Amino acid sequence: MLPDLNDLLGTARVVSLPLVTRFRGIDTREALLLEGPQGWTEFSPFVEYDDAESAAWLWAAIEFGWQQTPDVVRERIPVNATVPAVEPAAVVAVLARFPGCRTAKVKVASLGQTLADDVARVREVRSVLGPEGRIRIDANGLWNLDEAEHAIHALAEFDLEYVEQPCASIDELAEIRRRTHYLTVPIAADESVRRSDDPLAVARAGAADILVLKAQPQGGIRAALSVSRQTGLPVVVSSALDTSVGIAMGAYLAAALPELEFDCGLGTASLLAADVTTEPLLPVDGSIPVRRVVPDAALLDQHAASAERRDWWLERLARVYEVVAD
Ligand SMILES: O=C(O)CCC(=O)c1ccccc1C(=O)O
Ligand SMILES: [Mg+2]
């Protein structure tokens, strides 16, 4: 059951939040927030995504605002620190924003950087976290097969918990998994789940050991829970660099999973220099609470997007609504 478009437009607020450090090539995160009968919710597909891909994000936003959240089995979610592709000298300051986090996810394979840059960054993260820290890396599919094999070989000495999306395609993931099997570094799939027509294909191909699930791109909490159930693979719930409102959606997904073996990528409010609430879902003692988030009126005003960007988002909402309604 779909609410009327006018109900969505009636409460919509568009914000533009500055990031602490550049991430995925952006320094501000734009998001559209909506208030449904169950609470505030978020629609924030990345600006370059088309309407067809954004439909899952809108369905997720509507589900979270208009339907009750599923039963939860935990009240706090252990989270990882997320380390953008920064210089080694900046690593200490990044990790300090994630108090109590024993796990770090390090971005690698960034445009304009070399494997030596990645090795230096991961070495510094290992040195700060110590031998008991857990380190995972995320290449966002940017390596080809040989680059991935070489890089995983070079980075394995830092004891990797897993490698997220080393290559772009499912076939490549399956092949790199075979090639690096001897290193015993598990392979996780992210884009191959959230940007694929068939989120189960990567599991069916035996191309990943772990799935990264993001609530908005997966089409909501229930759809993501279904992927987890149907594949039986261990899951890491992650944010899409959402505001605290969207992170809450991810937190409810993580809280509803029967098993949660790995720390989740839901500490990303720490990458924002501003948020929409005075009580953001920031990590404390390495975890975030599971609760809904209510935006603060003054912060919504303070971080309101320009009139031009607001119109762009409202028009996008209306177009994507038609895709969902079909
Ligand atoms: O998983 C995390 O630690 C944080 C989330 C994250 O990395 C991310 C955030 C926005 C867009 C893509 C990604 C990604 O996992 O590739
Ligand atoms: Mg990823």
TrEMBL record:
Coiled-coil region list: none
Recorded family membership: Belongs to the mandelate racemase/muconate lactonizing enzyme family. MenC type 1 subfamily.
Active site (UniProt): 107, 214
PROSITE patterns: MR_MLE_2
Pathway(s) per entry: Quinol/quinone metabolism; menaquinone biosynthesis; Quinol/quinone metabolism; 1,4-dihydroxy-2-naphthoate biosynthesis; 1,4-dihydroxy-2-naphthoate from chorismate: step 4/7
EC number, UniProt record: 4.2.1.113
UniProt function note: Converts 2-succinyl-6-hydroxy-2,4-cyclohexadiene-1-carboxylate (SHCHC) to 2-succinylbenzoate (OSB).
Reactions the enzyme catalyzes: (1R,6R)-6-hydroxy-2-succinyl-cyclohexa-2,4-diene-1-carboxylate = 2-succinylbenzoate + H2O
Cofactor(s) recorded in Swiss-Prot or TrEMBL: a divalent metal cation
Swiss-Prot/TrEMBL keywords: Lyase, Magnesium, Menaquinone biosynthesis, Metal-binding
Enzyme class, UniProt record, top EC level: lyase
PANTHER family: O-SUCCINYLBENZOATE SYNTHASE, O-SUCCINYLBENZOATE SYNTHASE-RELATED
Protein name per UniProt: o-succinylbenzoate synthase
Amino acids binding Mg(2+): 138, 164, 190
Domain Mandelate racemase/muconate lactonizing enzyme C-terminal, first and last residues per copy: 88-183
UniProt cross-references to SMART domains, sorted A to Z: MR_MLE
